[in-house]
């Protein structure tokens, strides 16, 4: 399949449709015959609350004759006395009523909660039926998540939700990824985090920053790692104004709702699951061998007119030229074993139910040595309803502790790739590290600088509700979170070059985050006319406290003592920061539905946040959403019978973002590290205010053939203005940024398409397939006077925020042998004024295809993720060939050697001139190439052991499976991983190719 | 809805409305001090001024003495150093080869840290101006110190970059779009700041340590400024003022004492206290092992060969690391490369020897041959050398400048600045720097800065 065009994907659709049509049961309609008309029956069909149900199918059993209820739920049908009427309606239980001489039959249909259409989705403060929602909410359930051998729950979502782009640059277990819901709204790269809510409690999702090392490459540890993937019931992502406006100032970047599993009434159910497997890095680069490398270095010296010396070229003069080591294999090629065990027990009765569970996960890293990640999680859920059904309470506790053990070298992966192929051996014969007389830095020395991060994370929530009167419920949500992370980085003397002076030291970093939330709410439900009204009003009080402290200890007498601050000579607190964030709001919602066809949803919120100065603390947000289920209209039902579901919906509203640093409006001084000093922390602006994000969405949802084929298309346009930025300033102002509002407007617009079909559906064989694809587009719509601002050379009006401005490459100059770029303004110098080529490194499209095929007890699931994008190619990832003691890709062999040569690579050289020429080329359009990819993200084959066998050993259910993660990737990208190509760095660990085998038991 | 619920609802909303304003008002964090508070009393205001000096001792600061400092980058630009391992610092060869790129991070660091220093000084000045609670003597003292620091940073900016923005306020809205100001105008402001500082500062050191400037420090910088502006008369006068302060300053007889904390030759020092036990100079220059990428430079052969056999400075201030191929020489003015003890050496910015050499040159330029010889011989004598044999104006100037090279190598880019101001950069450097271009006397305005401030122009040749 060719990735650059969509032809490949779109050609699937007709095939699916054809398959569906082919597999449809042949259905013939019999029409009532003219004879045997003996009597008429008429009546009204209603739902449980007494509202009329239009469009209900009423057929006579065994005769096929039928009619449909009208606008007001009324029907009339000709029957014989012995006939039985069948009332059927999507979403309701089918009712059979014998005529037996009646002339009037009024029916109240009972809602059927089991059918697909009646899936309720969590909208945060309220729930809504999937078919009736007015907003855009995507949902992923536990089945899609639980088998994946990943630490970070986000990683499991990659490609599964339209409009939700998840990029994992570094694949170190536990490292943070980047999530963007409908693109980048803020000019600030750090102002685009969605709001995370676990069981009603907002959780700070910003990475726990690391003081250095492997984790700092990806900004740090992801705070939700300690959540047990297997305990997640569903993840909902709220995207449009209708869904997010109730979150007001925090909804601009979308909202992620994580719901954990709940206890269910019934027989006590024991659940045990485990898997185990192994992974290796999915891609190693092919690099120069020793003769090629040596030739490159020698040629570089000759071209530069320099003589290699022992100082500047130990690789040429001192090292053994006959060695050859595959350093990637040696340093990144180890097998990472994975083990995961889950157990839970649930049960209860109609009044009280519980779920109690725990899990253990461990995975190794691919580096030599004892590095890895492990976590232990525990969860508890208790639900209770009073006998009179008026009082309800739910308690959820999620607790996890994890340990991440790696080492303090963020550039280790890059170093492993760049190490010359004949670099000395790692160890001396006596087992000590080989420093080759100080001519290199032994890569293993970095591994001796161990770094451990221990985190424990508690998220608890209690919901109490009491029904005051019919339809009126008072409810309160109480939440508490507590995260504590300790990072210890050891720097033993033996890890440093023995020739340089050093001592045993350690670095300690503590992060504590605590928050509580109280949200009293009132809900009211009533029937008005032919419609149902739901109203909600509530308030929020939330406080978060953050504590970060970094300490160094120096002068441990013994390496074994490192980490124990009591054993240090000197202890320094590098910094300590305690911050507080207070947030309060009043919010409300009115939802009205009329005749089950027309839906209106109004939401609003007034927010106050301590992150703003006294003049700008409060702001209002709100949205209106509407939906029309046109398939409920009688004329549609009659004219297009194969259309089982059809809905238009739309919404418009405002949300905000207060994702800025705490205390930003204060003009403050901070103590210096040296004693007795204070220094200004930055420029202060007391007057900045909320960023406003206006969201507009229209969508159509269609279901065909009894919803066997479902299609959704959404179009959205989000415009965020009053951009709150760390406005970049030239350093002549003393600092490089100021918090301010810009009159700039950023627009994110796009299409999201989803297709779901149950291709085959028989007792023995089912095949479900779903596809989602998003076409996002990001534009900086307006930026008054950008040319006179500090953004003049970073962003272009009309281009995407993901754009980069580049030189125009002219390739290698055949005369000089150096790269050249166009001097666009012909002023004789190369600077930003010449960087006129605009390349968008944002994703052009992304999505995924999921297939679930089951034949009897055997099922096969596979999921493919695809992304269309450009990225930085290997020219940008590597440095000029020959200049440093660094290995290169074989592509550099095609280099310029003499005047007249037409070559891809400039001459090998160690000069600064050549370096600058290379740097400019690396900043030109030559360094950008296609980085689209199609990845078989997950595939699993499972077998459910037939109950005849399982019952004999007392099992209710037993499933065994094989699971593969990232098994193959199709891409034209030459670097380590196309996914991280837009960021472009050799320091990212490519994803692991992992195979696991597991078993799940119920008893 | 029954009435009692309505009332409950109403009450709770009212409660909310009243309490929420207070709920989201939070106190400033315990890790910071709000600036209004800083300038409310003497103690905190002094702390803020000390903070300015602490910030100078940063690895990234132009005055820090480390890899981004004037000492290192100026020395590389001139003929003081050679590089032997640039693995860790690929930006350094650009200075050595006088081909600094517009994206060079060391160059950006020089520029940014100097302006950050200026901001810090301006913030103190503005804080003092609006403050009510500070006593008059403290206010006077701190104002003088801040003006001195501002002039000090502008001095290096104008010498390294030529025309530069002149920043005298903390108002970022104005500063963000500041234009470059002619060298003449920058110097005018420097002189004004320094002469005011002279009036405000006391002769004594504020807290006994030579880490906060006194009046003589302002005079010392002013002497240098006049020398650079070829105002020989004033240069001599300012230098004399400092030299005459015998109670405070004498040339240390023992060369190994010249960089110790609060030694008698030191006029102004930057203290590593609280940050590290050693100076960045000691840490960077002292070579323990060949080819260590942490210590990428050593002294150039031309500098090493310029020393007389009997020059005591070569014995005391130059370290030797024998190697297989050729011996490496390194600056050994600072003796401590690494320690966890409390610092015993401070990074020295101004010391008395410079004033003697300033006055020697100023006197020679004015035809005062005996006066110039006398001053020069103070320095030569201390180094164990015979008196100068130069007798003409021309010869004396040349003797002073080469003495200065040997006296101040690896200190504050003296050599680079002197070569430029005397117009000898091209003659001296083009033989040793194959890529030398006349435009290399000024560093490029960092591209990152130009891209954020459209009013910044670029220097010739970049």
UniProtKB/TrEMBL annotation, chain A:
How is it placed in the membrane, per its record? Multi-pass membrane protein
One Gene Ontology MF term = siderophore uptake transmembrane transporter activity
Q: Which GO terms describe its biological process?
A: siderophore transmembrane transport
Task: Please provide one cellular component term from the Gene Ontology annotations of this protein.
Answer: cell outer membrane
Keyword field contains Signal: yes
Domain annotation TonB-dependent receptor-like beta-barrel: ranges: 433-807
* NCBIfam families membership: OMP_RagA_SusC, SusC_RagA_signa
Q: What is this protein called?
A: TonB-dependent receptor
* Region called Disordered, residue ranges: 485-513
- Compositional bias (Low complexity) spans? 491-505
The UniProt entry's sequence similarity note says: Belongs to the TonB-dependent receptor family.
Entry keyword set: Cell outer membrane, Membrane, Receptor, Signal, TonB box, Transmembrane, Transmembrane beta strand, Transport
According to its UniProt record, where is this protein located?
Cell outer membrane
The TonB-dependent receptor plug domain is annotated at 131-255
From TrEMBL, chain B:
* A single GO cellular-component term on record: cell outer membrane
Its annotated compartments are:
Cell outer membrane
> Record's InterPro entries?
SusD-like_N, SusD_RagB_dom, TPR-like_helical_dom_sf
PROSITE patterns associated with the record: PROKAR_LIPOPROTEIN (PS51257)
Known Pfam families for this protein?
Answer: SusD-like_3 (PF14322), SusD_RagB (PF07980)
Q: Where is the signal peptide?
A: 1-24
Write the record's keywords in alphabetical order, separated by commas: Cell outer membrane, Membrane, Signal
All copies of the RagB/SusD domain together span 325-462
Domain SusD-like N-terminal, which positions?
95-227
Give the UniProt family note. Belongs to the SusD family.
Protein name in the entry: RagB/SusD family nutrient uptake outer membrane protein
Which species does the entry assign this protein to? Answer: Sinomicrobium weinanense
């Amino acid at each position: 399949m060719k990735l650059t065009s969509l032809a490949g994907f779109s050609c699937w659709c007709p095939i699916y449709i054809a398959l569906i049509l082919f597999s449809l049961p042949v259905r013939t309609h019999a029409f009532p015959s003219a004879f045997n008309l003996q009597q008429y029956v008429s009546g009204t069909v209603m739902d449980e609350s007494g509202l009329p149900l239009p469009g209900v199918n009423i057929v006579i059993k065994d005769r096929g004759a039928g009619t449909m209820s009208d606008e007001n739920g009324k029907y009339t049908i000709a029957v014989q006395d012995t006939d039985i009427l069948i009332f059927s309606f999507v979403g309701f239980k089918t009712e059979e009523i014998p005529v037996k001489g009646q002339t009037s039959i009024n029916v109240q249909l009972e809602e059927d909660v089991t059918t697909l259409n009646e899936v309720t989705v969590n909208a945060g403060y309220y729930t809504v039926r999937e078919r009736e929602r007015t907003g855009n909410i995507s949902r992923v359930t536990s089945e899609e998540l639980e088998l994946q051998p990943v630490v970070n729950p986000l990683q499991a979502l990659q490609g599964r939700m339209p409009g939700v782009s998840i990029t994992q640059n570094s694949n170190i277990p536990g490292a943070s990824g980047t999530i963007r819901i409908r693109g980048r709204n803020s000019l600030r790269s750090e102002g685009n985090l969605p709001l995370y809510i676990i069981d009603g409690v907002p959780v700070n999702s910003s990475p726990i920053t690391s003081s250095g090392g492997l984790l700092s490459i990806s900004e740090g540890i992801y705070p939700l790692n300690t959540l047990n993937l297997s305990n997640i019931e569903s993840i909902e992502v709220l995207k449009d104004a209708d869904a997010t406006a109730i979150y007001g100032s925090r909804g601009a970047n979308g909202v992620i709702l994580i719901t954990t599993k709940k206890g269910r009434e019934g027989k006590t159910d024991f659940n045990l699951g485990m898997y185990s497997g192994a992974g290796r890095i999915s891609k190693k680069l092919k690099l120069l061998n020793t003769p090629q490398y040596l030739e490159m270095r020698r040629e570089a010296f000759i071209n530069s007119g320099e003589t290699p010396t022992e100082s500047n070229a130990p690789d040429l003069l001192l090292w053994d030229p006959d060695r050859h080591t595959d350093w990637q294999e040696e340093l990144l090629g180890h097998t990472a074993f994975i083990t995961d065990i889950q157990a839970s027990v649930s049960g209860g009765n109609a009044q009280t139910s519980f779920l109690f569970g725990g899990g253990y996960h461990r995975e190794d890293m691919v580096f030599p040595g004892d590095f890895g990640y492990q976590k232990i999680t525990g969860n508890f859920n208790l639900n209770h309803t009073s006998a009179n059904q008026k009082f309800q309470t739910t308690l959820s506790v999620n607790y996890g502790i994890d340990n991440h053990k790696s080492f303090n070298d963020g550039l280790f992966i890059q170093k492993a790739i760049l190490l010359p192929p004949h670099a000395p051996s790692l160890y001396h014969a006596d087992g000590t590290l080989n420093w080759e007389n100080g001519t290199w830095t032994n890569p293993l020395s970095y591994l001796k600088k161990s770094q451990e991060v221990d985190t424990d994370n508690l998220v608890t929530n209690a919901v109490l509700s009491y029904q005051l009167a019919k339809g009126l419920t008072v409810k309160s949500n109480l939440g508490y979170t507590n995260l504590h992370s300790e990072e210890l980085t050891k720097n033993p003397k033996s890890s440093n070059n023995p020739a340089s002076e050093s001592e045993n030291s350690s670095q300690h970093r503590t992060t504590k985050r605590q928050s509580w939330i109280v949200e009293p709410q009132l809900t009211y439900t009533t029937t008005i006319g032919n419609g149902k009204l739901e109203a909600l009003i509530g308030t929020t009080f939330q406080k978060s406290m953050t504590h970060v402290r970094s300490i160094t200890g120096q002068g441990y007498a013994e390496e074994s003592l490192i980490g124990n601050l009591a054993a240090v000579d000197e202890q320094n607190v590098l910094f300590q920061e305690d911050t507080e964030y207070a947030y309060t709001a009043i919010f409300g919602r009115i939802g009205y539905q009329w005749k089950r066809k027309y839906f209106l949803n109004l939401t609003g919120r007034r927010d106050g946040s301590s992150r703003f100065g006294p003049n700008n603390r409060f702001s209002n947000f709100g949205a209106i959403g509407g939906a029309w289920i046109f398939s409920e209209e009688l004329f549609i039902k009659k004219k297009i019978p194969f259309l089982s579901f059809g809905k238009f919906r739309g919404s418009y509203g405002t949300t905000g973002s207060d994702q800025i640093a705490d205390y930003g409006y204060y003009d403050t001084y901070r103590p210096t590290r040296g004693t007795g000093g204070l220094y200004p922390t930055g420029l202060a602006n007391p007057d900045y205010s909320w960023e406003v994000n206006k969201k507009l969405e229209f969508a159509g949802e269609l279901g065909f053939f009894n919803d066997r084929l479902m299609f959704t298309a959404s179009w959205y346009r989000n415009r965020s203005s009053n951009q709150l930025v760390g406005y970049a300033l030239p350093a002549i102002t003393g600092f490089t940024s100021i918090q301010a509002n810009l009159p700039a407007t950023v627009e994110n617009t796009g299409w999201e398409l989803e297709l779901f079909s149950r291709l085959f559906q028989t007792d023995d064989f089912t095949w479900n397939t779903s596809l989602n694809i998003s076409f996002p587009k990001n534009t900086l719509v307006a930026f008054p006077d950008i040319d006179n601002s500090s953004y003049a050379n970073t962003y272009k009006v009309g281009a995407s925020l993901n754009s980069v401005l580049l030189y125009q490459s002219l390739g290698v100059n055949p005369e000089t042998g150096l790269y050249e770029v166009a001097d666009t303004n012909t002023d004789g110098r190369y600077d930003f004024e010449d960087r006129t080529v605009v390349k968008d490194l944002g994703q052009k499209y992304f999505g995924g295809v999921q297939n679930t095929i089951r034949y009897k007890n055997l099922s096969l699931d596979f999921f493919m993720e695809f992304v269309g994008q450009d990225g930085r190619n290997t020219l940008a990832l590597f440095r000029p060939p020959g200049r440093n003691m660094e290995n290169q890709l074989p592509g550099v062999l095609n280099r310029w050697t003499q005047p007249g040569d037409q070559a891809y690579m400039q001459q090998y050289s160690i000069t600064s001139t050549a370096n600058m020429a290379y740097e400019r080329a690396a900043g030109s359009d030559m360094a950008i190439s296609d980085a689209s990819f199609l990845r078989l993200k997950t595939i699993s084959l499972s077998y459910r052991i037939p109950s005849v066998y399982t019952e004999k050993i007392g099992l209710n259910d037993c499933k065994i499976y094989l699971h593969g993660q990232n098994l193959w990737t199709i891409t034209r990208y030459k670097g380590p991983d196309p996914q991280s190509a837009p960021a472009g760095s050799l320091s990212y660990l490519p994803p692991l190719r992992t195979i696991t085998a597991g078993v799940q038991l119920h008893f | 809805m029954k009435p009692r619920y309505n009332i409950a609802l109403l009450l709770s909303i009212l409660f909310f409305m009243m309490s929420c304003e207070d709920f989201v008002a939070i106190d400033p964090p315990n890790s910071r001090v709000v600036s209004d508070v800083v300038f409310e009393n003497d103690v905190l205001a002094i702390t803020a001024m000390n903070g300015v000096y602490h910030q100078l001792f940063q690895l990234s600061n132009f005055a820090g003495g480390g890899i981004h400092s004037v000492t290192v980058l100026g020395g590389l630009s001139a003929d003081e150093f050679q590089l032997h391992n640039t693995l860790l610092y690929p930006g350094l060869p650009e200075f050595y080869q006088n081909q600094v790129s517009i994206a060079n991070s060391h160059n950006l660091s020089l520029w940014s840290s100097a302006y950050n220093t200026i901001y810090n000084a301006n913030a103190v000045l503005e804080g003092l101006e609006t403050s009510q609670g500070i006593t008059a003597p403290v206010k006077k003292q701190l104002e003088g110190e801040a003006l001195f620091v501002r002039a000090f940073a502008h001095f290096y900016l104008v010498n390294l970059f030529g025309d530069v923005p002149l920043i005298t306020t903390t108002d970022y809205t104005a500063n963000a779009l500041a234009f470059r100001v002619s060298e003449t105008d920058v110097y005018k402001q420097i002189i004004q700041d320094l002469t005011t500082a002279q009036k405000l500062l006391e002769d004594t050191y504020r807290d006994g340590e030579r880490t906060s400037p006194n009046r003589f420090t302002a005079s010392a910088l002013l002497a240098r400024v006049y020398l650079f502006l070829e105002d020989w008369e004033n240069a001599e006068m300012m230098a004399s003022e400092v030299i005459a302060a015998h109670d405070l300053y004498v040339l240390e007889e023992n060369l190994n004492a010249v960089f110790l904390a609060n030694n008698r030759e030191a006029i102004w020092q930057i203290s590593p206290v609280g940050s590290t036990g050693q100076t960045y100079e000691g840490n960077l220059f002292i070579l323990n092992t060949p080819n260590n990428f942490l210590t990428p430079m050593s002294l150039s052969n031309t500098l090493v060969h310029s020393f007389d056999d009997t020059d005591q400075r070569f014995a005391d201030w130059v370290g030797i690391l024998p190697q297989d191929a050729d011996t490496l020489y390194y600056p050994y003015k600072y003796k401590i490369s690494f320690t966890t003890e409390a610092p015993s050496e401070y990074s020295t910015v101004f010391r008395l020897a410079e004033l003697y050499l300033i006055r020697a040159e100023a006197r020679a330029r004015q035809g005062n041959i005996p006066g110039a010889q006398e001053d020069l011989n103070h320095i030569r004598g201390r180094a164990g050398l015979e008196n100068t044999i130069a007798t003409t104006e021309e010869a004396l100037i040349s003797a002073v400048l080469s003495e200065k090279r040997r006296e101040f190598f690896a200190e504050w880019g003296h050599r680079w600045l002197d070569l430029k101001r005397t117009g000898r950069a091209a003659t001296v450097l083009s033989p040793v720097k194959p890529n030398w271009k006349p435009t290399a006397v000024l560093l490029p305005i960092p591209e990152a800065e130009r891209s954020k401030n459209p009013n910044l122009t670029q220097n010739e040749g970049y």
